[in-house]
Specification:
The structure holds 2 protein chains of 2 kinds.
Chain A lengths: L3 H8 L10 H28 L5 H9 L4 H29 L7 H29 L3
Helix pairs in contact in A: 2-4, 4-5
Chain B lengths: L2 H33 L11 H8 L2 H29 L3 H28 L20
Classes of the chains: A mainly alpha, B mainly alpha.
């Protein structure tokens, strides 16, 4: 006869206090968004550096960002940045307050709510600019 | 590096991630609001817009702060990830070497561009330049 905990650990990734819960997913998402943002930063400093070559070259390079596919990519980038920012503030609170650890789970849902609100404020406006904004 | 030194450096890196992260939230949100949420959004970004901004010392210092904090925060994040997942000593050395090389390149190149950009390069068509270039 197996205990409830043993049965649960066989059916879902939640064998410990940590695995499979909000704490783990916030950590996974923080890593993935961080890596994505790093590689964009790498490209973004280089594309901005073409300012130094000539106005024509810079306008050509930045023009590559103004296509619909890149526009969707930019929405994804902002989604990653906003999550990383909000969850980063959560990490700071968990690390630096006496109550942070106790409420880390609730704060993860606050992060998701803030992320949703900020994305609602950003994405429609951005996509209108991408798909309707003239060159 | 001996362990005590290594611990001290890691603790410093840990503090840096919290402090730089806190400021980066405000710096990057401002960066996005000013550049991407303006009228026309991403379509309005061109040489005239960016060079016009960078002609202002306030934006130069804003951008150089953003550059250094973002690049160092990203570098330390990537270092942590390499430390966590790469066990082969040789591969780790190559990856960290590439990472620190990129970091140096981005910091030097970015800082130079921010402080040495000529907003009105001679011989460029006036319609590509910030409007203040044509005022004589």
């Amino acid at each position: 006869m197996s205990t409830t905990a043993q049965r649960e650990s066989k059916t879902k990734i939640a064998g410990t206090l940590y695995r499979g819960h909000e704490g783990m997913w916030s950590w996974v998402l923080h890593r993935i968004t961080g890596i994505a943002i790093y590689f964009f930063l790498l490209v973004h400093v280089l594309d901005t550096a073409t300012l130094r070559i000539s106005p024509e070259v810079y306008n050509g390079v930045i023009g590559a960002y103004k296509t619909p596919i890149m526009g969707i990519g930019e929405a994804g980038l902002v989604a990653a940045i906003v999550f990383h920012a909000m969850n980063g503030l959560r990490v700071i609170l968990v690390d630096s307050t006496s109550w942070g650890t106790k409420y880390q789970r609730q704060m993860f849902y606050v992060v998701l709510a803030l992320w949703t609100a900020l994305m609602i404020a950003f994405v429609p406006r951005h996509l209108m600019n991408v798909f309707e904004g003239g060159h | 590096m001996n362990l005590t030194k290594r611990f001290k450096l890691d603790r410093l890196a840990w503090v840096f991630m919290r402090v730089s992260g806190f400021f980066l939230v405000f710096l990057i949100f401002t960066h996005l609001i000013v550049n991407v949420m303006q009228d026309g959004g991403v379509h309005a970004i061109d040489f005239a817009f960016v060079a016009g901004k960078l002609a202002d010392p306030m934006w130069q210092w804003f951008d150089v702060t953003l550059l250094w904090l973002a690049v160092l925060h990203g570098t330390n994040g990537m270092r942590t990830i390499v430390d966590d997942y790469v066990y082969r000593a040789k591969l780790k050395k190559v990856l960290l070497g590439g990472l620190y090389g990129s970091t140096a390149l981005l910091l030097v190149l970015g800082t130079l561009v921010i402080f040495t950009l000529d907003p009105c390069p001679a011989g460029s068509p006036a319609d590509l330049l910030p409007s203040f270039c044509s005022v004589s």
